């Protein structure tokens, strides 16, 4: 979480950065999941929700008290195209990213009068070192043709960062509880 502001110095912000870094490292495996619900074991379900949802809640829980004390703040959570529809990934990943949107919107309502805005971005394909593969025969059969027909160009990380930077900025001071699709129009298909 480079650039995370904290009125209390490195302590809480450092913890938030470490948690965010850990979630990103663990998340790389979770993002390859494509299993339909009948193929998801409990360990996979727990790991995906732990990385994509629980770690985000814990990070928010760490920074919100600082923002409450400051009387202002802005949080941008990262969901996914899979959080906007059901045809982008498997059951665990899709459920976790839908839940991120619920956490974002609930928090936006709870903290709006305290000067804290909470929004999310929902990226589509973004160029990273993660190679997505279908681990499920059923997912390959069902999702494969949809992906081939509907996936727009892959975005660069800097393009996703621009949307996040905007939502964190004062230019977005009247935007709260929004999910910004940063997906080259994928959600419109």
Overview of the structural elements:
This protein has one domain: Rossmann fold (3-Layer(aba) Sandwich), CATH 3.40.50.720. It is mainly α and 189 residues long. It is globular. The chain is built from 5 helices and 3 strands. Strands 1-2-3 form a 3-stranded parallel beta sheet, with helices on both faces. α1 (10-30) runs antiparallel to α2.
CATH topology title: Rossmann fold
Tell me the major beta sheet.
3 strands, parallel
Residue-averaged pLDDT: 78
CATH architecture: 3-Layer(aba) Sandwich
Rg estimate, integer Å: 17 Å
CATH class: Alpha Beta
Number of strands: 3
Helix content: 40-55%
Spatially, the strands of the biggest sheet line up as 1-2-3
Which stretches of 5+ consecutive residues score pLDDT under 50? 1-12
Quaternary structure:
single chain
Structural class: mainly alpha
**Cα-to-Cα separation, first versus last residue:** 32 Å
Gross morphology is globular
Going by CATH, what is the homologous superfamily? NAD(P)-binding Rossmann-like Domain
Q: What is the number of domains?
A: 1
Strand content: 5-15%
- Our count of helices gives 5
């Amino acid at each position: 979480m480079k650039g995370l502001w904290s009125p209390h110095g490195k302590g809480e912000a450092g913890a938030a950065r470490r948690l965010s870094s850990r979630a990103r490292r663990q998340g790389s495996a979770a993002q390859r999941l494509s299993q339909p619900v009948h193929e998801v074991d409990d360990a996979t379900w727990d790991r995906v929700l732990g990385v994509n949802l629980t770690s985000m809640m814990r990070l928010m829980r760490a920074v919100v008290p600082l923002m409450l004390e400051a009387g202002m703040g802005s949080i941008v959570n990262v969901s996914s195209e899979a959080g906007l529809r059901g045809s982008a990934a498997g059951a665990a990943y899709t459920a976790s990213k839908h839940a991120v949107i619920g956490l974002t919107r609930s928090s936006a309502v709870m903290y709006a009068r305290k000067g804290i805005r909470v929004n999310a971005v929902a990226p589509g394909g973004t160029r990273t070192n993660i190679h997505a593969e279908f681990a499920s025969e059923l997912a390959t059969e069902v999702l494969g043709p949809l992906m081939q027909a509907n996936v727009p160009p892959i975005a660069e990380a800097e393009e996703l960062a621009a949307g996040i930077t905007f939502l964190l900025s004062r230019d977005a001071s009247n935007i709260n509880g929004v999910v910004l699709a940063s997906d080259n129009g994928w959600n419109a298909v």
